[in-house]
From TrEMBL, chains A, B:
GO terms, biological process: aspartyl-tRNA aminoacylation
Alphabetical list of PANTHER family matching this protein: ASPARTATE--TRNA LIGASE, MITOCHONDRIAL, ASPARTYL/LYSYL-TRNA SYNTHETASE
Keyword set, alphabetical order: Aminoacyl-tRNA synthetase, ATP-binding, Cytoplasm, Ligase, Nucleotide-binding, Protein biosynthesis
Keyword match Cytoplasm: yes
Originating gene: aspS
Taxonomic lineage: Bacteria, Bacillati, Bacillota, Bacilli, Bacillales
Signal peptide (UniProt feature, chain positions): none
Protein's UniProt keywords contain Protein biosynthesis: yes
Residues bound to L-aspartate: 173, 219, 447, 488
UniProt-recorded name of the protein: Aspartate--tRNA ligase
Residues binding ATP, per UniProt: 219-221, 228, 481, 533-536
The organism of origin for this protein: Phocicoccus schoeneichii
Amino acid sequence: MKRSLVNEIKNIEIGEKIKLNGWVQRRRDLGGLIFIDLRDVSGFVQIVFNPDVSKEALRTADTLRTEFVIEAIGEVVRRDESQVNKNNEFGHLEVIVEDVTILSKAATPPFQISDDNINEDIKLKYRYVDLKRQELQNILRLRHKTTKAVREFLDNEMFVDIETPFLSKSTPEGARDYLVPSRIHEGEFYALPQSPQIYKQLLMLGGFERYYQIVKCFRDEDLRADRQPEFTQIDIEKSFTDQEDIIEMNERLISHVMKEVKGLDVLLPFPRMTYDTAMNEYGVDKPDTRFDMKLNDLSDFSKTVDFKVFKSTVENGGVVKAIVVKNQASEYSRKNIDQLEAFVKNYDAKGLAWLKYNEEGFTGPIAKFFGESEQSELKNLLNVEENDLVLFVADKPSVVHASLGNLRNKLAKDLGLLDKNQYNFVWITDWPLFEYDEERGRYIAAHHPFTSPKKEDEGLLETDPTKAKANAYDIVLNGYELGGGSIRISNPELQEKMFKALGFSDEERDKQFGFLIEAFKYGAPPHGGIAYGLDRFVMLLAGTDNIRDVIAFPKTTSASDLMMKSPSTVSKEQLEELNIEIIKTKE
Amino acid sequence: MKRSLVNEIKNIEIGEKIKLNGWVQRRRDLGGLIFIDLRDVSGFVQIVFNPDVSKEALRTADTLRTEFVIEAIGEVVRRDESQVNKNNEFGHLEVIVEDVTILSKAATPPFQISDDNINEDIKLKYRYVDLKRQELQNILRLRHKTTKAVREFLDNEMFVDIETPFLSKSTPEGARDYLVPSRIHEGEFYALPQSPQIYKQLLMLGGFERYYQIVKCFRDEDLRADRQPEFTQIDIEKSFTDQEDIIEMNERLISHVMKEVKGLDVLLPFPRMTYDTAMNEYGVDKPDTRFDMKLNDLSDFSKTVDFKVFKSTVENGGVVKAIVVKNQASEYSRKNIDQLEAFVKNYDAKGLAWLKYNEEGFTGPIAKFFGESEQSELKNLLNVEENDLVLFVADKPSVVHASLGNLRNKLAKDLGLLDKNQYNFVWITDWPLFEYDEERGRYIAAHHPFTSPKKEDEGLLETDPTKAKANAYDIVLNGYELGGGSIRISNPELQEKMFKALGFSDEERDKQFGFLIEAFKYGAPPHGGIAYGLDRFVMLLAGTDNIRDVIAFPKTTSASDLMMKSPSTVSKEQLEELNIEIIKTKE
């Protein structure tokens, strides 16, 4: 007799026999009978042990405990109307067991699977137990559904899935590499790829025209809660394309994923916003557009007022901006506002000025600095209404934007303005080509060194590179960067200018990227692409805010695998073969 | 105007305009006109520059050279019947160019793409040029078609694609690991996975029941021609299964792939052969069954003859076997046979005895040792006919099998007996559970330590482990191991016995696999699976015998990437951050 899955019980006639395999989810003993919820990959169903049917099966059932693995054979019957379990798809049926076998016993699990109050480290140590949790089961299946939808779409569009190497080469641009010592080549190392960027461009030079890959990438960075040392990218590249073409195709891709995975129709095209607008109006380069509360620029207004803090900030090249928290003035005590001030200080703001508005006008510590006409002007500029709270930061633009942009997001969360079931996609375009790297003390590529400048800005590379805008675009969903890409440089002379603008000497450039510049000499098609962070995409689709929920075997924020105890020490012989030794710096 | 692909020209009305993008494949100048074959991802078509249509386009055309990237707009016309290029799908059409733009110039490539006589190292250095070769284009597309067919099948069977970690843990069982130093955990290392074996078993414990992944794996072994340091596995695991179920499902999987990729119907079920039969009759554990020439066991016969070499070999526990090369006696001179003898000496054979058969009977140096009745018996045992060549090896079984098994394959190749278009699948079953590892001086798991013994052999683990057979199976195609798997141990006590039989102390076992044995205590479903070597599978489907042909960016046999020059030296700072330094052993 062949095993049926629980959900196949629907196809079995009442009175017919079924063989089920699965785990004991719950046991109840009642009136000499034993009732067990048997769970498998497809669901669960009640199976009943009745002494009138089989005394032996009942005896075995009496030894069953939670998570035992069993095989049960019995007759499918319909439950009394009054007994139907309305919370279960198969709650109207049950199986009267004739024969049962214990396939595996189970010790008491280290924690209750359904218990939400378990320390995450314990759950990670026993990940195989936690993986049985319905939520994780659902999320990892949703992840597969997502990649399947992506593949379907790209396959239909004639993209070729091509694997690129993991044992790659270390390049100093970008984040820190994970290194792999070579045994054969003494003193040399491979690097795990941070992305297949160079390979995918070489595939374009190799004439493949349309490439994709869903692939692991690696960055040895200090981890934050939403980062993992290895992460998965949906990597796409296309020849004979431009920004419009890439955006249009990716909108169709996302629309297909949303339909297949969430059953949702998204409205195309997505809105677009320049990088400058995003920064000015939302303070961040990945605006959450599910709610309003935009940044209002009060710099011009501030020039005209007597309030010295505002006035002098603007006179010294800074800006003054404010957000309006609608209808919340009465909810925020001084103490609450002090907490918000502490929050913006994380972003280097020196303080958070505030005003409340009601029918008598503005109140608050700085109200006195504004005369009647100024208050009236402010009211109009901010469109304030009864019971609104206004929060101001005056500083250099980067501080104002970071402070108010992040405060805006925090307030939306605190005030419950975020609807998990709303998906607001927005393209951010016209990125700067360069950004200043404090650590390196020089300009670096904002995206990567292969991103092309806007045609009209090519001349700026040699004159005023920091003013150049890039043919780069990010797709943002609900305040998260879902993916980003660019149209690449396909002209070797322009690429050389780019490296020069980045401060590379000819020697450095040739050492690191010589082969690539050479490659572009043999006929390079115009090309561009995009890469999505799959983990984050799935996180948003699944409605979780824990990145570890979307990864079967995640690492902690110190990049440890608590289950396997990895990383771990290795033998002296292994290190000798690799011609390396450990430098002890701590005891 | 939107770009069309070359193959979309079929859908365009004669007289309509088309915009094409692609590479200059060939140029001919004739009677004041210029003819160019324009190639893109979908094919190539002739485009014509005529001064009567556009003098400017003709002037640009005159500057075009091979591999220039261009955009051309023009009218689609039908070629004269006499001019049709019958070697091209679109040879009956051409485009009269009105406007042409050079998108990229191209330097003369470092070698002619179509030249087969280029040193492979040069081709690997300029891989992006070689990738334009039609054969590589086709193979990498066939690779994608293969993975697509595999995914389709497994998705339909409710398998879940789940990603497992790359930053994993080093385990001394198995091949040599690639190590990755940890920056955060001083003196500790990750290892790149040799396979996701442990993870996929944990997913079964975690209740996923059906898992697959198409995933890179890593082995730092000395490379042979058909090995790469990183290779791709189709990895499959299933719960509540047994050997029959796995074999049946994988036959349907392979059948689906053969249909989708090659358009072939394969006959199911595949033949099966025990490991012992394969070794006895084919000398190898991956028999090529496309041709006969099996090994004949003459050990019993040898006991009865006066030929001392044969007789004493058998008396000392060895065997005598022979293969019959049909109808080739006259083609093999003494010198040819000496070459075959040199070949078997690679497999430690001390010599290769031979006889030829024709109407007068057996001839050859050892014929004199056999009397008339013995010759007659030999004739019957070997079924020899006129002009057959018989080749004998007498030695211990492992030497006889390796010598004759590999000689059999070599002869088939030399004699052209191998039909590339014939696909002979065969399951090899009933593998030994252990094999002797000369280097370690102890028994190791023939498959891996999680493979279950045959039910009836479980007792042997504690008494005579080397006699135990495993629930293991390999799928062999045309003499290559395509994949292999087993039903795993799901009982923690049996797993502990297995580690004991492998010579692990309790301490070693707990250190390396403690978490796994622990994991099995919380309710382990019976499970098993298989893993295919994708690179080899694609190699066979593509009919190439160079593994580098099926990999976009392969490494050399010294594990180097000649294009990127990887591995490479890294900075002192990078090593310091990882707390390691290089030991110099050479100057």
